[in-house]
Specification:
Order of helices and strands: HHEHEHEHEHEHHEHEEHEEH
Distance between the termini: 35 Å
Structural class: alpha/beta
CATH superfamily of the largest domain: Glucose-6-phosphate isomerase like protein, domain 1
Helix content: 40-55%
Radius of gyration: 19 Å
Number of domains: 2
Shape: globular
Number of helices: 11
CATH topology of the largest domain: Rossmann fold
Strand content: 15-25%
CATH class of the largest domain: Alpha Beta
Largest sheet: 5 strands, parallel
Length: 317
């Protein structure tokens, strides 16, 4: 077992400590979730969750909010910027937080490093301790920041969620057919709040195993990209509670075209239930997607402790 796998499997005690550690933000302004890479994909899901909870929210990549904020929202002073960064040192995110605050926005840093450049450039900080052995690949910290972000929106995270997420990750690990690792094209599908999580799953598999991945809203996949589906395709379907029937039909089409489907919350060649409040489904499936990435990498003999071309903290000179 390498360190990446160890951190994935040992992340759950850190969830237990983070549950209830922060409360809902009282700010009523537009929420602007800002991040890079994994943090941006978390931002996408958190913005969708926020809108679903009756809060106005958008998600913007760090460099875009830093350099082109008016293309996304015209007034800085009427925003509450939530800057997401594991390290608290990501160049674009720290700069975006600094500029937002100087322009009159209220800025909250969402991180696992409370003593960081990000914290020094925020009005408030929301943080939790992550696994000390986490390396380049974001696993436990990604789950924790999503958990904290949900709590910022007032979502009550029950203690039982820990066992549910752990059981799903274990079940997926035990159910993965060997042939899934032979697929050279992997697609992650998720709608609504789950799109950002699907994109994060795609990123995780790509950076860990160096396999080509894509992420789409489920029915959007039928508008062109479905032409790529064949016997070399694997699909990870994150089923939505409100669009299950349409997603089941899509999965049937994909299987007919040769795709091997992992269904989380619905049918597939591997089908696993996700029996939680839809507001918590994204959090529950994250560790399972991390396990999938690690297993794909192991099948290809790739060491995820030192993934190609990647560093733990991305900074620009």
């Amino acid at each position: 077992m390498n360190t990446t796998e160890k951190v994935i499997l040992e992340q759950f005690p850190y969830w237990e400590k983070a549950i209830g550690s922060n409360t809902a933000t009282q700010k009523n302004d537009l929420l602007v979730y800002v991040g890079c890479g994994t943090s941006y994909y978390l931002a996408l899901s958190l913005a969708a969750y926020a809108n679903g909870a009756g809060r106005q929210a958008i998600a913007v990549p760090g460099d875009e909010w830093l350099n082109r904020p008016s293309l996304f929202w015209p007034e800085w002073t009427k925003t509450h910027v939530v800057a997401i960064s594991r390290s608290g040192e990501t160049t674009e995110t720290v700069a975006a937080a600094r500029k937002s605050r100087a322009s009159g926005a209220f800025v909250t840093g969402l991180t696992v490093e409370p003593d960081s450049a990000l914290a020094a450039n925020c009005d408030a900080i929301v943080a939790a301790r992550t696994h000390p052995d986490e390396g380049i690949v974001m696993t436990a910290s990604a789950s924790l920041m999503l958990l904290l972000g949900l709590q910022m929106l007032g979502h009550d995270i029950p203690a039982s969620i820990v066992a549910t997420a752990k059981a799903l990750a274990t079940a997926l690990d035990a159910s993965l057919p060997a042939r899934i690792h032979e697929r050279s094209h992997v697609v992650f599908l998720g709608g609504g709040e789950l799109y950002g999580v699907a994109a994060e799953g795609a990123l995780k598999l790509m950076e860990m195993s160096q396999v080509l991945t894509q992420a789409f809203h489920p029915l959007e996949f039928r508008h062109g990209p479905i032409s790529l589906v064949d016997g070399k395709t694997a699909v990870v379907m994150l089923y939505s509670a409100d669009q299950t029937d349409a997603e089941i039909k899509l999965v049937g089409e994909l299987r007919e075209k040769g795709a091997l489907v992992v269904g989380l919350g619905g049918p597939g060649d591997v089908a696993l239930p996700v029996d939680v409040d839809p507001a918590l489904a994204g959090l529950v499936v994250l560790p399972a997607l991390q396990v999938l990435g690690e297993r794909a990498a192991q099948a290809r003999g790739i060491d995820t402790v030192s993934p190609r071309h990647l560093t733990k903290v991305v900074t620009l000179a």
